[in-house]
User: Which sequence fits this backbone?
C-alpha cells in the first residue's frame, strides 16, 4: 500500500470514529458471474455454455468459480480496509459479480477507485407495491384442460416469490389433501427450519424457503421482536401473492360464517419457492433483494414474481435500466427465468412506474367483473350507495341511528378520536345498544391503525344493530375497498351522500338546550352485501395502477419502451392471508383477505406464465412475454374498448378510454402462432443505443461490452419486443420486427395497420407465410402528419389463415 493510500485510510478511520455513519453499498466488479463465464481465468473452466442448456450449479466448475469470486471480494476488502471497520453482507456471484458491504461513505469513495471495481452504488429501499379471477380469465374451461386439468396445471414448474415470506400451514399451500408431490430434481433450493416449531417450511408444495435480511439488520431497521428472522410471513402480502399464482385449487374461502367461493391459484400444481425480503415495519432493501434473486436463479426457479419495487427511479446511473437490481434481472432472463414485476400503485398519474426495463414483464392492475356494493335505506326513503360485505340488518328491518358524537362518555374522550369508533370503552353502551352506530372516517384510516374491522368489533361489543362509517372530507388518492365483517355494516364514500345522511340525522334528532341529544328518531336499514355483482364493463384499468409512459432516466424523460406490458386482475382479489399478518388491519387474525394492488396483478401473470412454461418448456422468457402481450384482449366483456379509471378536474373518479394497457388472454397465449423473441445480446445492444449512456457504464453494470462499430446505428426502439414505441418521432422512421413461428403448421398471415390520424403508419409486406420454427421480418414506417404534443396510438395486426391473431401496439409522439 502506498503512503498516499495509507494516509487516506487513516483519515477514513478517524472520520469513522468521529461520525460513526455507515451505509450499505452494492459493488459490481470486473469479471463475469457464473451465468456468463466462458473461461479465461487461469485454473477455472467455463461455467456457461449454450443458452439452451441449464447450468449445473452442483458441478465442480461452478462451485470452484463461485468460491473464487467470493474469495476475491474478501481479499479486495481485506487489502483496503482495517478489519472491523466494514461488514461484507453478501457476495453476488451467479447473476452479477459483486458484493454488498456495510461501510462509511468515505470508505465507499475510496473503494470506487480500487482496481477491479466497476461501480459502487448506495443501497435503497423497496416497498410492497383468488376465488373468482380463474373463472374470469377462462382458466377452468379454456386452459387447465390442455395441461391435464386443474390437478396438473403448472405441474413441476417452480415459481419463486421475492416477497414477505409465507404462512406454510395455510390450506392453499398444503400438500396433504392433493395428489403427492414428487421431487423436482433440477431445483436446488434449501428449506430453512422454523426457529420456534423446529419444523421445515417446505412440504412438497413449498420446495424452498429462505430469508434475506443482512442489509436490513446492518441498516438498523430489523427488529427481531417484530420481524421474524425466518421465511414466516408476518405481513400477509407474501402469502397472498403466492396463493394467487400457485395456491391449491378448491380451497373454501370462509370468513365470519360465510363462504365467499373456493380459491385457486392460476397454476394450482406449480411449486412455490420463497425468498423473503420484505418485513413488517420498513419494507426491504435492494441489496437483500438482489441476494434473493441471485439465489433464486441459482436454485433453479422457472418463474420469478416480484410484487416489490424501488421507492423511486435509480439516481446513480444515467438511465433507469442500468442498476444492480435490473442487471440481476437481466441475467436472470439470460438464464431462462421469466420475471413478472408489479407496475406500482402510483396511478392514475403518468410516469409513476417502478418497473422500467424491457426484459421485465411489467404488470398493471385491472378491475375484474366482480364488485361488492351495498346500500343504506334511510327512514326518509333515500337510498345511499356504499361499500360493505356484510349481512343485512335483522329481518331486513330499520333501526334507530345514533352518532358516535352523541354516545361519548365524557368530553375528555374527544382527544382519543372516538368518533372513528375504534375504542368501545369511550362510548355509552346503553345508548348505542339496539341502534345503528354512525361513525366518522378519520385520517387515521389512511395513515394510522384505524380499520373497518375494529369498527365492527366496537359495534358488536356495544350491542349495536349495525354500523355506518361515513366519509365527510375528500381524501384524493384514497382507495376505498369493501371489508367483510360479521355484522351489518357499510362504508359511505361519496361525500355528497354523507351530507344527505348527516342532514337527515340532524333534522331527526331532538336535542336539549345544551345541544345534548335526547331522542333519536332517524332510522336506517342496511341491505345484504354478501353477494357480488358481475359487470360486463370489466376489465378496467384500476385507478391506483401506475401509468406510463416509461422513463429512461431520473429526469423523467420518456423512454422508447412501452410500459406497463400487460394488465391483469388486481382489484379486490381474494386469496390466502397470514393470520399474524399486519399489512391490512382489516384482516388481522384472518386466513383470507380481499385486497387490491399491482402486487396482486403480477402473480396472475406469473401463474399464467407457469402454464405456458409447462406446455412450452423450451420457450425463452421473451417468447413467453410476447405470447402474453400479442394475444391480449383490448375489449371488455361487453365487447367495448377497454376503459381506465381516472380523475376528473374536480377529483371525481371517471372513466376514459384506455391507452395500450392490455388484458391477458391465457387460452390464446398458450398458442400465439408467432412470437417476437429477444436475446441477451439484443438487450445489451438496446442499452448501448440509449443516448447519453456511456458504453463503459453498460459494461460496468452488466459485465457485457458494447459493439463500438455499431454506435449510432442502433436505436432503442429497434429492440425486438412485441410493441413499438417512439417517444420523439421526427419526420419518417422505419422500424423492423422479426416474428418467429411457434405453430405446428405453416400459416399465412395478412398484415394490417391502423393509427391515430396525427401519425401515418404503413407496414410491409401486406402478407407473409411462415413455416414452423421459421422467422420473417415486417417493416413499420411511421411519419409525422401533425404535431399535437401528445402520444398517438395504433397497432399492427397479423391475422393467420389457421386462426391465430397477433397484435403489436404502436405508440409515438410526433415532433417537428
Assistant:
Amino acid at each position: 500500500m502506498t503512503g498516499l493510500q495509507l494516509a487516506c485510510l487513516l483519515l477514513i478511520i478517524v472520520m469513522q470514529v468521529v461520525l460513526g455513519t455507515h451505509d450499505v453499498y452494492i459493488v459490481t466488479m470486473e469479471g463475469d458471474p457464473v451465468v456468463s463465464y466462458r473461461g479465461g481465468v487461469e485454473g477455472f473452466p467455463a461455467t456457461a455454455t449454450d443458452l439452451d442448456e441449464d447450468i449445473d450449479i452442483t458441478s465442480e466448475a461452478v462451485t470452484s468459480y463461485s468460491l473464487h469470486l467470493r474469495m476475491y471480494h474478501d481479499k479486495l476488502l481485506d487489502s483496503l480496509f482495517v478489519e472491523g471497520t466494514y461488514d461484507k453482507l453478501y457476495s453476488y456471484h451467479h447473476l452479477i459479480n459483486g458484493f454488498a458491504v456495510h461501510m462509511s461513505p468515505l470508505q465507499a469513495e475510496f473503494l470506487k477507485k480500487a482496481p477491479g471495481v466497476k461501480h459502487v452504488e448506495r443501497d435503497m429501499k423497496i416497498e410492497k407495491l383468488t376465488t373468482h379471477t380463474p373463472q374470469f380469465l377462462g382458466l377452468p374451461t379454456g386452459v387447465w384442460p390442455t395441461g391435464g386439468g386443474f390437478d396438473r396445471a403448472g405441474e413441476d414448474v417452480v415459481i419463486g416469490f421475492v416477497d414477505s415470506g409465507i404462512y406454510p400451514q395455510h390450506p392453499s399451500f398444503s400438500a396433504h389433501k392433493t395428489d403427492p408431490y414428487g421431487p423436482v430434481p433440477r431445483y436446488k433450493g434449501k428449506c430453512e427450519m422454523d426457529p420456534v416449531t423446529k419444523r421445515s417450511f417446505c412440504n412438497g408444495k413449498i420446495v424452498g424457503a429462505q430469508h434475506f435480511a443482512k442489509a436490513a439488520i446492518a441498516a438498523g431497521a430489523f427488529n427481531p421482536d417484530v420481524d421474524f428472522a425466518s421465511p414466516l410471513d408476518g405481513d400477509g402480502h407474501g402469502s397472498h401473492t403466492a396463493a394467487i399464482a400457485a395456491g391449491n385449487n378448491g380451497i373454501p374461502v370462509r370468513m365470519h360464517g360465510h363462504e365467499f367461493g373456493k380459491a385457486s391459484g392460476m397454476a394450482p400444481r406449480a411449486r412455490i419457492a420463497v425468498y423473503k425480503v420484505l418485513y413488517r415495519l420498513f419494507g426491504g432493501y435492494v441489496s437483500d433483494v438482489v441476494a434473493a434473486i441471485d439465489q433464486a436463479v441459482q436454485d433453479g426457479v422457472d418463474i420469478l414474481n416480484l410484487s416489490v419495487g424501488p421507492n423511486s427511479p435509480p439516481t446513480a446511473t444515467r438511465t433507469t435500466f442500468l442498476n444492480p437490481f435490473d442487471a440481476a434481472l437481466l441475467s436472470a432472463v439470460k438464464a431462462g427465468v421469466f420475471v413478472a414485476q408489479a407496475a406500482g400503485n402510483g396511478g392514475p398519474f403518468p410516469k409513476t412506474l417502478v418497473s422500467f426495463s424491457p426484459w421485465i414483464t411489467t404488470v398493471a392492475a385491472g378491475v375484474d367483473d366482480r364488485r361488492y356494493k351495498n346500500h343504506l335505506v334511510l327512514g326518509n326513503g333515500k337510498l345511499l350507495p356504499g361499500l360493505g360485505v356484510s349481512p343485512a340488518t335483522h329481518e331486513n328491518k330499520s333501526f334507530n341511528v345514533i352518532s358516535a358524537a352523541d354516545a361519548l362518555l365524557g368530553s375528555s374522550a374527544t382527544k382519543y378520536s372516538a368518533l372513528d369508533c375504534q375504542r368501545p370503552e369511550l362510548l355509552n353502551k346503553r345508548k348505542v345498544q339496539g341502534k345503528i352506530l354512525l361513525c366518522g372516517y378519520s385520517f387515521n384510516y389512511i395513515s394510522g391503525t384505524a380499520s373497518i374491522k375494529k369498527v365492527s368489533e366496537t359495534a358488536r361489543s356495544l350491542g349495536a344493530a349495525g354500523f355506518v362509517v361515513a366519509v365527510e372530507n375528500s381524501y384524493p388518492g384514497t382507495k376505498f375497498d369493501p371489508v367483510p365483517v360479521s355484522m351489518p355494516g357499510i362504508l359511505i364514500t361519496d361525500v355528497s351522500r354523507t351530507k344527505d345522511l348527516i342532514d337527515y340525522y340532524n333534522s331527526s334528532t331532538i336535542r336539549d338546550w345544551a345541544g345534548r341529544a335526547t331522542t333519536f328518531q332517524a332510522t336506517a336499514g342496511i341491505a345484504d352485501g354478501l353477494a357480488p355483482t358481475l359487470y360486463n364493463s370489466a376489465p378496467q384499468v384500476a385507478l391506483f395502477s401506475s401509468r406510463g409512459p416509461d422513463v429512461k432516466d431520473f429526469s423523467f424523460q420518456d423512454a422508447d419502451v412501452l410500459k406497463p406490458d400487460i394488465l391483469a386482475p388486481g382489484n379486490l382479489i381474494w386469496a390466502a392471508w397470514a393470520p399474524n399478518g399486519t399489512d391490512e388491519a382489516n384482516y388481522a387474525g384472518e386466513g383470507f383477505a380481499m385486497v387490491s394492488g399491482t402486487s396482486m396483478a403480477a402473480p396472475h401473470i406469473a401463474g399464467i406464465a407457469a402454464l405456458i412454461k409447462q406446455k412450452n418448456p423450451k420457450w425463452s422468457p421473451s417468447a413467453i412475454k410476447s405470447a402474453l402481450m400479442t394475444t391480449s384482449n383490448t375489449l371488455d366483456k361487453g365487447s367495448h374498448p377497454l376503459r381506465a379509471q381516472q380523475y376528473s378536474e374536480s377529483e371525481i373518479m371517471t372513466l376514459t378510454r384506455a391507452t395500450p394497457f392490455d388484458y391477458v388472454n391465457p387460452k390464446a397465449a398458450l398458442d400465439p402462432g408467432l412470437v417476437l423473441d429477444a436475446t441477451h445480446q439484443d438487450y445489451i445492444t438496446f442499452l448501448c443505443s440509449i443516448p447519453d449512456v456511456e458504453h463503459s457504464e453498460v459494461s460496468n453494470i452488466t459485465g457485457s461490452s458494447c459493439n463500438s462499430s455499431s454506435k449510432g446505428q442502433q436505436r432503442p426502439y429497434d429492440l425486438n419486443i412485441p410493441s413499438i414505441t417512439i417517444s420523439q418521432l421526427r419526420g419518417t422512421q422505419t422500424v423492423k420486427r422479426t416474428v418467429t413461428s411457434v405453430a405446428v403448421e405453416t400459416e399465412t398471415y395478412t398484415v394490417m395497420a391502423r393509427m391515430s390520424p396525427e401519425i401515418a403508419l404503413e407496414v410491409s409486406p401486406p402478407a407473409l407465410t411462415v413455416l414452423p420454427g421459421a422467422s420473417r421480418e415486417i417493416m413499420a414506417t411511421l411519419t409525422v402528419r401533425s404535431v399535437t404534443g401528445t402520444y398517438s396510438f395504433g397497432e399492427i395486426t397479423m391475422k393467420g389463415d389457421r386462426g391465430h391473431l397477433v397484435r403489436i401496439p404502436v405508440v409515438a409522439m410526433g415532433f417537428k
